[in-house]
Amino acid sequence: MLRVISFVEIYFVIGCCCALKCWHCISDNCDIDPDDNERAEQRTCKRGQYCQKVYFEMHSTFENKQLYSTVRGCAWDCSPKNDFRNCSRDLYSSRGCIEKMCCNDNDLCNGSNNIHVTGISKIFGMLIFTTIISNMGFT
């Protein structure tokens, strides 16, 4: 019996069998493009991990100055977050605000300008799948 392999099966097999490569940088200058940063390195993540890029900012009332930090690396269960949308003055001066971007759609996706949010990639993939299925007459 001949079986047709679906787009979804191919998408998940290709996406799940190969480990993702991400930029890894924990330093004071990780905000610059990792391609131009000698402290940033490419690392192979464990299967199932995401690439993440986290930007942190706060005002230290103790030191009376702005503190900034950017970190890149592999992560489990990465959920995008943006505290800056609702960052109150109290939050900004106590624990700070973060913006976390997650991706797993291609290697080194946590670089400087090439962050692709995972949810968008999944939605786009499902739109393609739905179009293929409807053109094949399965709907």
Describe this structure in words.
This protein has 139 residues and is an alpha+beta fold. It has one domain. The protein is 26% helix and 29% strand. It contains three helices and six strands. The protein has helices spanning 7-17, 89-94, 118-136, and strands spanning 21-26, 41-44, 50-60, 65-75, 81-82, 97-103. The protein has a six-stranded antiparallel β-sheet with strand order 2-1-4-3-6-5. A hairpin with a 4-residue loop joins strand 3 (50-60) and strand 4 (65-75). The radius of gyration is 19 Å and the shape is globular. The model is unreliable at 7-16 and 114-127 (pLDDT under 50).
Protein topology:
Elements: H1 7-17, E1 21-26, E2 41-44, E3 50-60, E4 65-75, E5 81-82, H2 89-94, E6 97-103, H3 118-136
Antiparallel strand pairs: 1-2, 1-4, 3-4, 3-6, 5-6
